[in-house]
Amino acid sequence: MFLQSLSIETISFWLAIVATIAFAVTAVLAIADHGVDIFGVVVLGVITAIGGGTIRDLILGVPVFWAKDLIFAQVAVFSSLLAFAGRSFFTQPQIFSLLLYLDGLGAALFGMQGAMKTWTLNFGLPLAPILLGVLTAIGGGLLRDVLAGRKTLLMTSEIYAIPVVIGCSVMMVCLQLFPSLDTEALIGCTVLTFLLRTAAIYWHLRVPEWLMTKSRHT
Amino acid sequence: MFLQSLSIETISFWLAIVATIAFAVTAVLAIADHGVDIFGVVVLGVITAIGGGTIRDLILGVPVFWAKDLIFAQVAVFSSLLAFAGRSFFTQPQIFSLLLYLDGLGAALFGMQGAMKTWTLNFGLPLAPILLGVLTAIGGGLLRDVLAGRKTLLMTSEIYAIPVVIGCSVMMVCLQLFPSLDTEALIGCTVLTFLLRTAAIYWHLRVPEWLMTKSRHT
Amino acid sequence: MFLQSLSIETISFWLAIVATIAFAVTAVLAIADHGVDIFGVVVLGVITAIGGGTIRDLILGVPVFWAKDLIFAQVAVFSSLLAFAGRSFFTQPQIFSLLLYLDGLGAALFGMQGAMKTWTLNFGLPLAPILLGVLTAIGGGLLRDVLAGRKTLLMTSEIYAIPVVIGCSVMMVCLQLFPSLDTEALIGCTVLTFLLRTAAIYWHLRVPEWLMTKSRHT
Question: Residues A129-150: pLDDT tens digits?
């Protein structure tokens, strides 16, 4: 009942707002140990928050999402400024640990939303929704790391994007089998992705050696 | 009288040509101390000169500006070759200092032009013109630095983009209040941005410590 | 006779499949000495294989090629996984040497195909086909190197992209003079580009000192 009374658009909108805030704040903290000024902070925060979705929309050939709903760009700018002002608060170990989970929630939300948008547009099914879901989730962070001269997450053994790949893949299977349950698939797979990422953070899980090109101990 | 006899399109066109030359030449000099061949020089010069505007046009969803006016790409290629050939001349301290101001003029021109184009297209007002103005001004330089393995300007305390932010913001206020004075706003804010950048170069101004994530002395 | 019985679309399609495999496999090997997990391997392999063509299509304002022909993205994913699984085989000196030539073939194929697509769309003639041909050939590799934290080929004196510039330029001259011989121009210039790259690999040719910004020995 509850799920049916909320349109998928409404749910997607609010999830995206939460994810935008999470991404902008964690982006600022990720670069806070470098000497960055307030301009760089806002640029990197905004790029992290809306960069992945922007590249996705360019590839989909649709107007970028933040031109229609300017609120996303505004939230990204404001969250970055907030994170800058409150960085001594946010970098406390316990708060930072909380933000790590929040960032994982953001990746899950953005990833599933990107995959759903691609599926709704009937674009390159079934592979493209997975590729563009992952791009939405990690694209902004990759841009941030490259611009900040940091090692990108592709070059680590952190389990960050693999939950998104699993979540998007499961969602595609669900949507192929039960196309009418799109809202349930979106929510269920977002939860699944977030739980997988949470487990990875909590138990310090790493990609096993045999799935890496080189042992990390040599 | 004078300002009214020139269309805003004509002024924008010629300012963009000057900015294209300035960006291509300073880009080549910025990477000249690395061992780059003539191919790399032209690629990095062209990307610096037309990269920011290209990304802006993709986000705006309009044809890239240099496809219609091929002159911009031609000028970028030619200026890069010229800067390569004359690099021993351009790298003399006094000439290089002059180029630093010229580069600041380019950033002012590109920034205001990008903001004006976004405003003219009625795209995501009033925030998007500022974001895309800044992107037009610094996007090409960011691409260049990333491709050349240099530290991007986001990670410095140089006052380079902040004048563009101020110029674009002032222009948006002017255009909201006096929409008919678009040519005057474009020229006035370009001059304002350039003067701010000039002051930053001349007096070696830096972003104050309290606007940075970390003291630059620790 | 033979050339006339095959449409230019059919030839382009199969050449692009070969190039996609070559790019994905060599991309994986290029980053194999870093500790990358299977997710990073696939992402970097896919980006290398389809990244250049994707940026080209965005600039051309046409749907990205792999949305219509999903086979390209599928081949890129599969080739990356294959290269990961067989990396101990592929990194043998003789096999790796073979792959270097295969990668040169990929660059020639992608470059000429990108230039031809731009010419067919009558986009920014005659300069844009050369710029976008080069972008198609090296764009994916540049993205890979930037994301992997490697030095991009722009900062080396390797003769990799210059053959593509020559091939695209010769093709533009041919197409201006003999527009009806497009299939022949495509094949001839692909062979020319590949031969130039082959010569550069075989004889360890480097860009001569006077075409570099700085001597590589100082």
Answer: 999 999 999 999 999 999 999 9
How far C61 CA sits from the closest chain A CA (Å)?
Answer: 8
Q: Which residue of B has its CA nearest to C214?
A: B35
Taking the complete model, does pTM exceed 0.90, yes or no?
Answer: yes
How far the first Cα of chain C sits from its last, in Å, is: 55
For residues C69 and A127, the answer to whether their CB atoms sit within 8 Å is: no
Put simply, the answer to whether B73 touches C142 (Cβ < 8 Å) is no
C91-150 pLDDT tens trace:
888 888 888 898 899 999 999 999 999 999 999 999 999 999 999 999 999 999 999 999
Average pLDDT, chain A: 90
Q: What is the mean pLDDT of residues B102-110?
A: 92
How far, CA to CA in Å, does B50 sit from each of A127, B53, B64, C51, C213? 33, 6, 9, 19, 22
C7-46 CB burial, b ≥16 within 10 A, e <16: ebeebbeebbbebbbbbbbbbbbbbbebbbbbbbbbbbbb
For chain A, give every domain's residue range: 2-207
A216 has a chain C CB within 8 A of its CB: yes
**Residues forming a β-bridge with A107:** none
pLDDT at B103 over 80: yes
Selected residue of C26, C37, C87 to mutate for chain A interface (largest A Cβ count, 10 A):
C37
User: Three-state SS for C125?
Assistant: coil
Q: Are A164 and A138 in contact (CB under 8 A)?
A: yes
Asked whether B77 and A72 are in contact (CB, 8 A), the reply is: no
Tell whether A64 lies on the interface with B, counting CB pairs under 8 A.
Answer: yes
